């Protein structure tokens, strides 16, 4: 259901807000306002994410869910949700940090973990140029191999 909401309402905050407000009635079996994302025969179209595909029941449960969703049912929230961003950027950063501090090695108990995480963030933000900046910052002598490595890795990334 949410997948269909995202596709139909991408970039349209008011439409997204309207569709989000239909989630609670929908999961509690009130399908009168469900549009194209609900079949004409609710009995033949069970909820795929609910136990045994059945509608939810209970006034207390409904009140709790409505309360939890309230912060998303504002125009401001809809404006933030409408672009339908993804977490790919975060996953990419996690991947870069994972190359510096792999889970197969225990670095969390040492200062090495902070340094490795910082190196991953620097690489993510500045590309491999962070190596030259670190060399310069520490007063070490830059060399041809370092510059060649940086160029090679940045070209590979592109």
Could you characterize what this model shows?
- The protein has 158 residues and is an all-alpha fold.
- It has two domains: 2-81, no CATH class; 88-157, no CATH class.
- It has nine helices and no strands.
- α2 crosses α5.
- The protein is elongated.
- The two termini are 36 Å apart.
- Proportion of residues in β-strands: under 5%
The parts where pLDDT drops under 50 for at least 5 residues are: 1-6
Largest sheet composition: none
User: Mean of the pLDDT scores?
Assistant: 77
Helix and strand element order: HHHHHHHHH
**Helicity range:** 55-70%
Radius of gyration: 25 Å
- Large-scale geometry: elongated
Q: Give the beta-strand count.
A: 0
CA(first)-CA(last) distance? 36 Å
Please indicate the count of domains: 2
Output the structural class.
mainly alpha
Q: What oligomeric assembly is this protein in?
A: single chain
Question: What is the tally of helical segments?
Answer: 9
Short description:
58% of the residues lie in helices and 0% in strands. The chain is an all-alpha fold. The protein has 2 domains: 2-81, no CATH class; 88-157, no CATH class.
């Amino acid at each position: 259901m949410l997948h269909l909401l995202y596709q139909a309402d991408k970039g349209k905050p008011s439409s997204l807000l309207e569709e989000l407000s239909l989630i609670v009635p929908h999961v509690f079996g009130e399908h009168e306002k469900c549009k194209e994302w609900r079949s004409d025969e609710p009995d033949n179209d069970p909820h795929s994410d609910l136990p045994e595909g059945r509608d939810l029941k209970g006034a207390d449960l409904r009140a709790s869910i409505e309360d939890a969703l309230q912060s998303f049912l504002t125009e401001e929230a809809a404006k933030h949700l409408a672009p339908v961003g993804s977490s790919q950027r975060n996953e990419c950063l996690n991947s870069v940090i994972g190359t510096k501090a792999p889970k197969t090695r225990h670095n969390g108990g040492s200062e090495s973990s902070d340094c490795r995480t910082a190196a991953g963030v620097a690489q993510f933000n500045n590309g491999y140029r962070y190596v030259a900046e670190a060399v310069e910052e520490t007063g070490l002598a830059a060399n041809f191999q370092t510059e060649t490595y940086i160029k090679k890795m940045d070209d590979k990334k592109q």
